Amino acid sequence: MQPVLFDSSIYITALRTGDEAALSLRRLAVDSPIWLSAVVLEELYAGIAPRGRHVLERFERDFEKARRILVPNLNDWTQTGKVLARLAAKYDYEKIG
Q1: HSE of 63, CA atoms in CB hemisphere, 13 A
Q2: Hey, which bits of 1-97 come out as E strands?
Q3: Does residue 81 form part of some domain?
Q4: Residue 45 within any structural domain of the chain
Q5: How many domains does the chain contain in total?
């Protein structure tokens, strides 16, 4: 029973298809707990149309009630930055300094 963490693109697709599709995502992994990243939640709120906000708020409440929202800490962010720096060096991305 491996936990599942979806990227925002999965939720965006589901939200675009309608209210029930977004809420039924948790059924995709019946035997696995689904977690929601706070970063993904922020991305969804940033892009949601006003008419769909109530769906996202209910979605957030469901995950909060289940205590399944992952919030990155300082170490998570610094490690992410280091990984991104390695990828930037490998693929010759633009540098800021």
Answers
A1: 25
A2: 4-5, 34-37, 69-70
A3: no
A4: yes
A5: 1
Closest CA to 40 of 52, 32, 48: 48
With a threshold of 0.90, does the pTM exceed it?
A: no
The predicted structure's pLDDT at residue 22: 60
Please give the helix or strand (H or E) that residue 73 lies within, else none: none
Strand 34-37 and strand 69-70: the pairing is: parallel
In this structure, the dihedral spanned by the alpha carbons of residues 16, 20, 21 and 25, taken in order and rounded to 10 degrees, is: 130
In a domain, 96, yes or no: no
C-alpha to C-alpha distance for 12 and 74, rounded to whole angstroms: 27
**Lowest-pLDDT range, 3-7, 27-31, 50-54, 88-92?**
27-31
